[in-house]
Design brief:
Blueprint (H helix, E strand, L loop, with lengths): L2 E8 L2 E8 L1 H18 L12 H32 L3 E7 L15 E9 L12 E6 L4 H14 L2 E3 L10 E9 L11 E7 L5 H7 L7 E5 H4 L2 H10 L7 H4 L2 E13 L5 H7 L8 H35 L6 H10 L7 H27 L6 H16 L9 H10 L3 H21 L3 E6 L2 H10 L3
Parallel strand pairs: 5-11
Antiparallel strand pairs: 1-2, 2-4, 3-4, 6-10, 7-8, 7-10, 9-10
Helix pairs in contact: 1-2, 3-9, 9-15, 10-11, 12-14
Length: about 450
Amino acid sequence: MATVARENIGLLTDKLTIKVSKEEYLPSFEKKLKEYSKTANIPGFRKGMVPTGMIRKMYGPSIFNEEVLRTVEKKLYTYLNDEKPEIFAQPLPLENDLSKIDFNNPIDYDFGFEMGLKPSFKIADLAKETLTLNKVDVNDEMITEEINRMQIKGGKMMEPEQIDNEENVLNVLFSEADKDGSVVEGGISKENSVLLKYFTPAIQKQLMGKKTGDSLVFQLSKTFEGEKLDMMLQDLGFEKGDKEAASKYFKLDLVKVGLIEKRALDGEFFNEIYPGKNIQTEEELRAILKEEIEKYWGAQSRNQLHDQLYHLLLDKTTMQFPEAFLKKWLQTGGEKPKTAAEAEAEFPMFANQLKWTLISDRLIVDNKLEVSQDELKDYMKEEVMRYFGQMNMGEDLSWLDSYIDRMMKDEKQVDATYRRLITEKIFSFIEKSVKTKEKKVTTEELTAMQHNHQH
């Protein structure tokens, strides 16, 4: 009978030796030979009348190998199902000498497999930690800026005769030139749209009163400043912060002058942006916008706190891995094989992902976190409603339930939704365990924090 022996061969790494006796595989080998003789199509013989001896000669070695390996595989998975060792992935076969398998000489065989074991660990004690809750105060200026954006988005483009307003949109042709305005042969030439207020005050003053067809020679570094200069450099094909490129001269030909006539703050406009809310005054609009903007930045603050929690758990939870095994697995376990060097380079990020998976799985099990079918359906319904946004879908939404039922039959959709919801539950649970101190930050500061850490 087949036996399985287990021994430790390294840090969190065990070897399984599966011994298969000939009594285990010979009956199935003989059975397969008979099945082949009944189905094989061989010239000179009627189907089903091919002698077993000929089948043995023609197909014996390959059938024998298949049955030996199939028996080994069966015993391996029986052992894993019965013993349930805490392992990563599937065991990897060690270097087994398959040349020793000889169907003319049936004997007992030993096959070795390497197992990577999951570590025992203790999750970091979050109760000892104090994290920063970075919060944005929503002020009147932010609300005014949003209203202004809405007015411009819904506004009408006008074409005044000349530049007379810092809000003018200038369609211009940038042509690389010398300081006297002579265009450089083969130099950069690009048409673009730029707001007048993006130029430096000195250049804005020079441009005031200019009309379509007028031109101006300028040096990039004296025409734009800070992020506007970086934006223009990149738009013209240079690298951000390129000082040599910033010293270049360009000829600006004014192609067209535009000005967006903002929408009036009236009932018609209010109903377009918030249909059905019956907004009558600017004060009512500002109140709704304040609530929405606070909700948005509140969610961003919470996301950033979750990012801190993620790093805290990773950094403060001590965990070891069977590195040699996992690096071998990385080489063979993916869609396409990797070299040892590729696996080595990929391992640090892979180890972090693996560590987070073990931590989150433990949190789910220990705290009995779960996502119900109703929660999955409700979330999907919210996503569908959010997708349609402010479109008027009418009063009859009976179609929505059947649509969600179809989504619930899509395994990928259900899995993705489950992952979002269970992740939210994990962080909602652990954020209650940690102390926080509030810190007022700007929108730019909070956004920068999020860009520096994306998971």
